[in-house]
Amino acid sequence: MAQGMQSKEWPLRITGSYSYGEDELVIRRAIVTEKLGELTDIQVEVLSPDKSIALDKLLGKIMTIHMAAAKGAERKFTGTIVRVERLALRDGFVQLLAELRPWFWMLDQTTDSRIFQNMTAVQIIEKIFGEYAFSDFKKSLSASYQQREYCVQYRETDFDFISRLMQEEGIYYYFDYANAERKLETLVLCDDVSAHKPIEGISTVEYRPGDDYKQRLPDCVSEWASSQEVVPGVVSLRDFDFNTPNAKLDVRANTKTKATHNYKSYELYDAPGHYYKETKLGTTRAQVRMEAEDARFDRRRGRASVRAMEVGKTFTLKEHPEKAQNDDFLITGATYYLQTTEGYGFEKNSQDLDTGALEFPDDGGEMFMVEFEAQPKSVKYRSPLTAPWPEISGLHTAIVTGKSGEEIWTDKHGRIKVQFHWDREGKKDENTTCWVRVVTPWSGKNWGMVSIPRIGQEVVIQFEEGDPDRPICTGMLYNADTMPPYALPANQTQTGIKTRSSKGGSAEMFNELMFEDKKGEELVRFQAQKDHEKLVKNMSTITVGYDKLDKGGNGGDGCLSQVVKKNVDETIKEGDHTFKIETGSQTVEIKTDQTETVEGKSTRTVTGNNTETIKTGNKTTTVNTGNIQVDAKSGKITVTAMQSIELKVGGSSIKLDPTSITIKSTMIKVQANAKLDAKSPMTTVNGDAMLTLKGGLTMIN
């Protein structure tokens, strides 16, 4: 091994999943930047005696930095090489600069648009990790998380999408490198200080200020600064849920800081709060935002030589002259500076420019130094809401979907399901999206207009506040599969509403109201596929034609033709029915029977002649109670029958036939005020019991 090549006894060395051995790649120095809820960035300067080293054999490989710590322990930093740059020759070695990132960074290289339904944020995160076979994560979560009915990732990297879910829920993370050698680091998900353990092997750290690092203890804090800043005192959120439109869905959370300034009443207000009617969830959302603000209020920063100091770990500071500073703290961020010291074969001077070399804060010759940020352990940490929230400002179109075998799929609110064109995972069924509300031209309390988009139709979707989780259907469109009901442009003057019978209706089965506006051919056409109901609560007036007397006849101006193939039922519940023909005649033709019932009085006035003809069959007039009166005041009454005419009252009758007249009764009286003539060729008067003839003068010839 050439002088200066690393060995396992070195205090700073590297290993990796690449094919080069430990004597072929040597670390010179590195800067590691970490923060709670953010991706680690590791910049490493590497030297190699192989002047033809292939960069592509390093890219995408895992590299681990090993650093000797206190009491024989070892501290590691691991990442995947995502960028490598050849800089120059340095003392006979090729100088390389490698950028290392955690596996979570890889999800910033992928974008997707998809829909998650009925899953918690944690379940969504686990699903995405599983899709990339990333199992190197650990859940140290204390809270339970509510299921999200509908959650959309829209044109976002998987990293941005997961980050905004975590920030909204109050989840953050850090990386654990304890078992990461030639394998990926572990992502630890947290939501409470209980997830953070003390620094390994040194839970208490002394404060030892001084400029000479050689005089300091090996594990101490040499610089310490505290700061406070003004933060809002209240977070208020409001939301709206159409199921409870009058409910006041306001929530708020107050700061828990001990600030005494006059600005604690300042409020951060936002709407919508992304919790709909779940005010309990809204309170949690507000509390998370407030805690993210509170986390900025009281901070510490410092410089230390504690090699075991890790982001996500806690420690207790002691020996600070200000007693209030001797407290328990959570490390929220850190920048580690690692370098080899001289004497390992690397000369300080180089014939080539040290192009791209890492910049350290000073040149004190220290092998290790960390600049860190911390906050009191008693304060909850929350990541600031920095992840971008996708906002959809334009229109989308989608296809209406539903259950197999159905033509219309809706709920009691008239909502629909759709499949977006960008959705690669939807199955075009009843589970493609959440229920989507449909805009209507007119809506009221049990009144308005209803038109439910049907399965297969293309619809226009917009998003409330641009939020992809809140789609609204604002219209419908024709396309090549769903063409207009009237052929265009041939029928461009036609306007109308044409439906289709469902389920299983054919093109000939529809209801329709169509308007033809072509000049000279104007037409309004109405079709009821089955029944037609019309209710007029007051007056109904129909005027056919206009004042024009030079046309008429069938099909002329002013004609009304009605054809009903089956029944016509007409009911007038209250009031009168008047039918008037001012000029012209009425013809009523009934092919079978006619029944007319009048419960009150029936009066018929005929100014001219009244002729009634019964071609076949009988005519019966029955008066159950009352009389029949026939009165020809200025004319005569003629009753003619081919066979007979018979009048009956009880047992009395008068019967007329073509050859005789028969009068029957218990008693018959014939009285003439002036003269009675009875004349025939033959006359018989017979009184079986008695015959009486009386007269002032009786003459028998």
UniProtKB/TrEMBL annotation:
Membrane-spanning residues: none
GO cellular component: extracellular region
Entry keyword annotation includes Secreted: yes
Protein's cellular compartments: Secreted
Keywords linked to the UniProt accession: Secreted
InterPro entries per the UniProt record, alphabetical: Gp5/Vgr_OB, Gp5_Vgr_C, T6SS_RhsGE_Vgr_subset, T6SS_Vgr_RhsGE, T6SS_VgrG/RHS, Vgr_OB-fold_dom_sf
Main location, first listed in the record: secreted
Keyword Amino-acid biosynthesis among record annotations: no
Domain Gp5/Type VI secretion system Vgr protein OB-fold: 411-478
Domain Gp5/Type VI secretion system Vgr C-terminal trimerisation positions: 495-551
Family: Belongs to the VgrG protein family.
PANTHER family, per database record: PROTEIN RHSA-RELATED (PTHR32305:SF15), PTHR32305
Name this polypeptide is given: Type VI secretion system secreted protein VgrG
